[in-house]
Write a structure and sequence with these properties.
Strand order of the largest sheet: 3-2-1-28
Number of domains: 1
Number of strands: 28
Structural class: mainly beta
Distance between the termini: 59 Å
CATH topology: Methylamine Dehydrogenase, Chain H
Helix content: under 10%
Order of helices and strands: EEEEEEEEEEEEEEEEEEEEEEEEEEEEHH
CATH superfamily: YVTN repeat-like/Quinoprotein amine dehydrogenase
CATH class: Mainly Beta
Shape: globular
Radius of gyration: 20 Å
Largest sheet: 4 strands, antiparallel
Strand content: over 45%
CATH architecture: 7 Propeller
């Protein structure tokens, strides 16, 4: 049975491209589903959930697309400045960060802004939601890395990193995270919140993606994608993906292999088959499509896999509790331990009827 798969890419030319991928043949083919001139400036970020795809732009707007109905779904207007990062948590919430220093938490039911957090003194450059949904990390141009309690929208921990990090990502198990500064990937341990390793790329890094809990795919200012084993701090694979620099990478798992998706300034989106084994070999090309535009960002729309992720938070519960205990100890921050995932404040509280009890 063929997997349902969509590719969404943003470009300098202000256009969002959507493709439906046919995966039931040896060579995957991508058929154009939409080309949408939704923005009035270059597109800077993209993200996908089970139903929706969002793009953010230098025009200060977030545009919504309903992938089930295949229609535009409106725009989110709250940020003042470029939208720098977008990330869904499951199917219920979207987080956005911008040059205005704000992180906004949106409900996907009514597309209301549930929380607007003044996260950084400068720009928010990147954010990442913990697998439990209780915490998020953000980095900004104020040279800080901040941990956010998403249950109450408050800062739980602030770390001065003395440099401007431009990417931050939790590992899939939530036991560590990485912060990228120029050409360096700093690996942080969850419990100590300290750097346990550093990996240096040959060029400034533009995109990273965890393939599994230890292998990180890294793209930078050249045509190569490199895979690094963070536990050993070793490069384990390198391959030429495009003719010019790779701007964005994403990945997902099929039955017995990983699919890496890359987007480049050369206009191509490429899908690569990677077998995760002890000795990693260079991936083979599954399929490609030429958008003829200068691509800036990428998102993979895959409804079945996103649904599974959203329905399986229990596997990360122990990690989440450890983090709660650790943060409570270090900063005396009380974080609710009940299973609340980004508490929905959009539901009005019931008013009592009558004049008295």
């Amino acid at each position: 049975m063929a997997a349902v798969l969509g590719l969404i890419a943003g470009s300098y030319e202000q256009i969002a491209f959507g493709y439906r991928v046919k995966t039931d043949e040896k060579e995957w083919t991508a058929k154009a589903e939409f080309t949408h001139h939704a923005h009035t400036a270059s597109i800077s970020a993209a993200a996908a959930s089970e139903r929706f795809v969002v793009t953010g732009s230098k025009d200060e707007t977030i545009q919504l697309y309903d992938m089930k109905k295949r229609v535009e779904h409106g725009a989110l207007l709250h940020h003042d400045g470029t939208i720098t990062c977008l990330e869904f948590y499951g199917t219920s919430h979207l987080l956005s960060g911008g040059e205005d220093g704000l992180i906004c938490v949106w409900s996907t039911k009514k597309w209301e802004c549930l929380k607007s957090i003044k996260a950084h003194q400068g720009h928010v450059t990147s954010l990442s939601v913990h697998p439990s949904g209780k915490l998020a990390l953000s980095v900004g141009t104020d040279k800080t890395l901040r941990t956010w309690n998403l249950i109450n929208g408050r800062s739980a921990f602030i770390k001065n990193i003395k440099q401007n990090a431009h990417i931050v990502r939790w590992s899939p198990d939530g036991d560590k995270y990485v912060a990228v500064v120029n050409d360096k990937v700093n690996i942080y341990d969850l419990e100590t919140a300290s750097v346990i390793g550093t990996v240096t790329n040959t060029k400034r890094i533009s995109s990273v993606k965890f393939i599994n809990n230890s292998v990180l795919a890294i793209a930078g200012g050249d045509e190569f994608v490199r895979l690094c084993d963070l536990s050993k701090e070793e490069w384990v694979c390198e391959f030429k993906a495009h003719e010019t620099r790779v701007k964005a990478i994403d990945s997902f798992m099929m039955e017995d292999y990983c699919v890496l998706v890359t987007a480049s300034n050369d206009g191509f989106i490429k899908m690569w088959k990677l077998h995760l084994q002890e000795e990693l070999e260079s991936p083979t090309l599954l399929g490609e499509v030429n958008t003829t535009a200068r691509l800036t960002c990428l998102a993979v729309w895959r409804p079945s896999s996103v649904q599974q992720t959203a329905e399986e938070p229990a596997a990360e519960a122990t990690t989440s509790k450890e983090l709660i205990q650790e943060l409570s100890k270090t900063k005396r921050v009380r974080i609710a331990a009940e299973e609340v995932i980004l508490e929905d404040e959009s539901k009005p509280k019931k008013k009592k009827k009558g004049k008295g009890k």
